[in-house]
Amino acid sequence: MVGRHHDSSVADFAVGLWITERRVMRKLVIDCETSPNLAYIWGLWNQNVGLNQIEKTGSVISFAAKWHGSKKVMFYSDHHNGHEEMVQAAHELLSAADALIHYNGKAFDVKHLQREFLLAELPPASPHVDIDLLRTVRSQFKFPSNKLTHVSEALGIGKKTPHTGFDLWRDCMMGDDKAWALMKKYNIQDVRLTEELYDRLLPWIPNHPNVGVFDEIPDACPKCGKGPMISNGTRRSKTMVYRRLNCRACGSWARSRVAEPVARPDYI
Length: 268
Ligand SMILES: [Zn+2]
Description:
The structure is a single chain. By secondary structure, this protein is α+β, with helices and mostly antiparallel strands. About 30% of the residues lie in helices and about 20% in strands. It contains seven helices and ten strands. The radius of gyration is 22 Å and the shape is elongated. It binds zinc ion.
């Protein structure tokens, strides 16, 4: 086993991610759960809550994560591990990842985690690329709802674990073991759905990091890392002509990096 992070205690990335001695892109699927802010309020309708009314600010209470392609789902929580250990584990995992796969993680999960890192006086985790599937769903399709539960059901991938709504969060805040068992199940199911959705959406994901850069396979599909890439027509930009390629494994479209040597007009 070789790699930059093979000595990490929690970053159990090695399973299924290394093919002999060759490195592959490490994609971490991740989903966080957070607690609400706890505040004193004077009423229920149209409340404008001042900062000095907040008794306790919300925080990350748990996260589930898995390395894309490996079976094991990792779960850490305030309840099961303690806050400090959970934050440390998230920091190690993010640092070991080349890319994060999430649903709205760019605006939510990653920012929440980074706030926790800052509060814990940890340095920034090493840089990663975000593959935010909500952005793909929003930019590529028109679903009646962009919620993970709707999109997953519409695609027949599966359902989110049903829960008791806000009661579940309140019971977890009270330290209820049963509630935490359900939270764990819910959090893990979200990560599984996110991974399956990623596999389904892969050829549609705009600006997906080029797997070839990480895997160092020059002729593989830039998205799935497999192939073969079949030459299929040409793609013309305003000034250049490129060979257009289609992945037989995942259906992604790509183009040659270098333009074709074709006769072009002298003027642009
Ligand atoms: Zn492909």
